[in-house]
Design a protein that fits this description.
The protein contains 13 helices and 15 strands. By secondary structure, the protein is an alpha/beta fold. The chain folds into two domains: 148 residues, Aspartate Aminotransferase, domain 1 (Alpha-Beta Complex), CATH 3.90.1150.10; 272 residues, Type I PLP-dependent aspartate aminotransferase-like (Major domain) (Aspartate Aminotransferase, domain 2), CATH 3.40.640. The strands form three sheets. It has a seven-stranded mixed β-sheet, sandwiched between helices. It has a four-stranded mixed β-sheet with strand order 1-2-3-13. A four-stranded antiparallel β-sheet has the order 11-12-15-14. Strand 1 and strand 2 form a beta hairpin. The structure holds pyridoxal-5'-phosphate. The site of pyridoxal-5'-phosphate (PLP) has 15 residues, from helix 4.
Length: 453
Amino acid sequence: MTTPRATGHRLMMPDLVRGPAATFVEGRGDTLITSDGRAVIDGASGIGVTCLGYDVPGVAERMAEQAARLQFAHAMRFDTPPAQELADRVAGHAPDGLDSVFLVSGGSEAVESAIKFARQYWIERDRPGKWRVIGRWPSFHGSTIATLSAGWHQARRAKHTPLLLDFPHIEAPNLYRGCGHCRRAGHCTLGCADELERVLIREGAETISAFIAEPVAGAAGGAATPEEGYFARIREICDRYQVLLIADEVITGFARTGRWFAIDHWDVVPDMIVFAKGISAGFAPLGGFVARTELVEQCSQGSGRFEHNFTMVGHPVACAAGCAVLEELERIDAPARVARDEQELFAALGQLSTAPLVGDVRGKGFLAGIELVADRDAKTPFAPHQAVAERVADAALAEGLLVYPCGGSADGSGDHLLIMPALNMATARFAEIAELLGRALAAVGVEIGGPTG
Ligand code: PLP
């Protein structure tokens, strides 16, 4: 039997039957243009990537100049001025003590690299048994085998479970539903942070290299934000059991939540911060991690080697893009801009709290999550086969708005949308985004039922 495929699409996409939801041919400011000439407001910065919209001064020029001068140097043995400059710029925004930057081509590569670096650090400390990573349920850290193992995004894991590594998980904070620890208490007790200690005792801290968490949850947690004190407790436990703390800031990094890095909100210093997405604003595949210098010194004074590489590590044209993007984020003082205007975003999106299908509106900075439920009082999630988040995203696209449909924040199932405006988007747009999304929610609400307002 042959599989039906959309005509004209030999390009393989995850949806093998339907093909692309739209073909975009141009970007202007905060708007994308489709091949049939329709304008779509980008309410999600692609998927948290195009943090400066679509015509960013100076970036394309800087990339072209670098490509014309030198397009490649093998970073296992050589470096280049843009790679050096980017490392300096990233370290300049990282918490004190995190000074060593490793550059790759995206988020999964960056998390994978951090996991491998954590493992090598413990080998240098003569503790080779420490190799497993504790992650959270739910969470998303990437699509490679190790990163999929560290995260827990039910839908993205399901088909791959036999391939995955034996990494333990603890519950992620969930202030909307309450995590398993706090549901009965009716308030957050930081029980989900304390679970880290119990899992370390159960699994044996001598087998664990690192704990990884998104400071504010992305694809799997729908912008769930922890209670004050959560990361301080986590840091304390990591220190007590000699486990490295990795902050996955692939979505939250570079001002998305109103600080250069979201972990800064809680004055906690992790051992490594992983970044990607916003660092190049979508101009080039780019990511990396910044590590505590002390960890790197342990390795340089030991074997003298980080045994890990990809061909495109520290790619000069991508690094040139990253430098120009960081320069622009600095010029507009992106963290201050987001911190100043986040209330406006949440005031606009808050209007949707009583819109059809909506159970919760939450988030931090310009990272907002809208959880969709079948019953608002009981917080009942929709069945996965109803694909409600995708249907709302399709309806929004028809209205001229791009949002990011995701799932997993209701004990592994459930639907949510991520709204992540460009960090320089005009505040007047927020009301438009809410209006277009309100229409999409109403249309899908009529189709499937659920809370109506
Ligand atoms: N970590 C987080 C928190 C993410 O949100 C993502 C992607 O959405 C990744 C890692 C993986 O990044 P990439 O898709 O660039 O491989």
